[in-house]
């Protein structure tokens, strides 16, 4: 199956959306205990300062859209991976994962 | 007509949004709101929350104030930051902090808001104390306020 191309200037697009507050957060972003302790202002920090972890990107066939993985350290030095998607309306934070917690 | 209420966890803790429009993004209904505004409204609602803060709310408050645990502990008069860490780790349960600490936290929050808020929050907490209410904080939209 041939996937559609990924977005160009991904990190700049994310930075701009976060800067303007023009994004949405999935209700499930904080579903698991391991996802907590990364409050949303710290998730924003990771999206501004992190890097694109390309090998963790996944194509979501259901929505015909890429989900992008952004990795970085929060201001509390927690290793965080954030999965984001770009839908018609812009940026959506799908999942926030605290990589330092195992529970 | 009843204002629409939705239970939302997008800031890391449960809150009830009242009067917000919603939209469907990738199959999910989410509030159609600017997230800077939503965070500001949630912070204000938490400042006046009748019940005790839960761990995840405290973590949000500290992050919103852009403070490290050490800075936050100093501001609320704690000898070290390990207490802040313990409180935040309570997650979706009340922090368990004693009343004077809760009062200090709320006054710190009030100090980040507009003038006159410190006195208002002090009156609220010192007169009514904290309720045992552990219901999610209610965040009204501008129209629903």
Please provide a written account of the structure.
The complex is a heterodimer of chains A (103) and B (145). Chain A contains 2 helices and 6 strands, in the order αβαβββββ. With 103 residues, chain A is α+β, with helices and mostly antiparallel strands. Chain A has one domain: YaeB-like fold. In chain A, strands 1, 2, 3, 4, 5 and 6 form a 6-stranded mixed β-sheet that branches. The radius of gyration of chain A is 13 Å and the shape is globular. Chain B has 145 residues and is of the alpha+beta class. Chain B has a domain of 98 residues. In chain B, helix 1 packs across helix 5, helix 3 packs across helix 4 and helix 5 runs antiparallel to helix 6. The model of chain B has no long low-confidence stretch (mean pLDDT 88). The chains are: A alpha+beta (103), B alpha+beta (145). Chains A and B meet through strand 1, helix 2 and strand 6 of A and strand 4, helix 1 and helix 2 of B.
Topology:
The complex is a heterodimer of chains A (103) and B (145).
Chain A: H1 10-20, E1 23-25, H2 40-49, E2 51-52, E3 58-60, E4 65-73, E5 79-87, E6 90-98
Parallel strand pairs in A: 1-6
Antiparallel strand pairs in A: 2-4, 3-4, 4-5, 5-6
Chain B: E1 5-8, E2 15-18, E3 22-25, E4 28-31, H1 35-47, H2 55-64, H3 69-75, H4 82-88, H5 99-111, H6 117-128, E5 137-140
Helix pairs in contact in B: 1-5, 3-4, 5-6
How would you briefly describe this protein structure?
Chain A has 103 residues and is α+β, with helices and mostly antiparallel strands. In chain A, 20% of the residues lie in helices and 34% in strands.
